[in-house]
Amino acid sequence: MATGSQMGRTAIERGTEWLSRGGLRPTRQRVALAALLVGDGEHRHVTAESLFALSVRGSEKVSLATVYNTLRAFCEAGLIQEVVVDGARSYFDTRMDDHPHFFWEDTAELFDAPKDQLEISRIPELPAGSELSRVDVVIRLKRG
């Protein structure tokens, strides 16, 4: 992931355009975090803590609380999606289409799984008065 002076103008421009697509005001801190998330054009999965660690190396200093709040704002704007792997750990994914994930339990790493290899033939009947929002599939892995 690009950091500091490696981000250059292109990463900042990509981050700013990305924020604009979500209708978010491009504050310095949002632009810096957006550049870390999407500045190289690659999709990634981050935790608030891992994004904070990356931001520490950059020129724009942000607090961990700001990272949490900014990630929530990015989710609400439809720019990223939250992937909850257990009650205590959330990842934020810049890839917005529906797709499954592999989660390595020993290293706590989250990766995209091949979407075309997953088949869900049926889901349980939904409770009255509800509608399906989305289905999250996290396939937990351990070394064998």
TrEMBL record:
<keyword id="KW-0678">Repressor</keyword>
<keyword id="KW-0479">Metal-binding</keyword>
<dbReference type="GO" id="GO:0005737">
    <property type="term" value="C:cytoplasm"/>
</dbReference>
<comment type="subunit">
    <text>Homodimer.</text>
</comment>
<keyword id="KW-0408">Iron</keyword>
<dbReference type="Pfam" id="PF01475">
    <property type="entry name" value="FUR"/>
</dbReference>
<keyword id="KW-0963">Cytoplasm</keyword>
<dbReference type="GO" id="GO:0045892">
    <property type="term" value="P:negative regulation of DNA-templated transcription"/>
</dbReference>
<keyword id="KW-0238">DNA-binding</keyword>
<dbReference type="GO" id="GO:1900376">
    <property type="term" value="P:regulation of secondary metabolite biosynthetic process"/>
</dbReference>
<dbReference type="GO" id="GO:0008270">
    <property type="term" value="F:zinc ion binding"/>
</dbReference>
<protein>
    <recommendedName>
        <fullName>Ferric uptake regulation protein</fullName>
    </recommendedName>
</protein>
<dbReference type="GO" id="GO:0003700">
    <property type="term" value="F:DNA-binding transcription factor activity"/>
</dbReference>
<dbReference type="InterPro" id="IPR036390">
    <property type="entry name" value="WH_DNA-bd_sf"/>
</dbReference>
<dbReference type="InterPro" id="IPR002481">
    <property type="entry name" value="FUR"/>
</dbReference>
<comment type="similarity">
    <text>Belongs to the Fur family.</text>
</comment>
<keyword id="KW-0804">Transcription</keyword>
<dbReference type="GO" id="GO:0000976">
    <property type="term" value="F:transcription cis-regulatory region binding"/>
</dbReference>
<keyword id="KW-0862">Zinc</keyword>
<keyword id="KW-0805">Transcription regulation</keyword>
<dbReference type="InterPro" id="IPR036388">
    <property type="entry name" value="WH-like_DNA-bd_sf"/>
</dbReference>
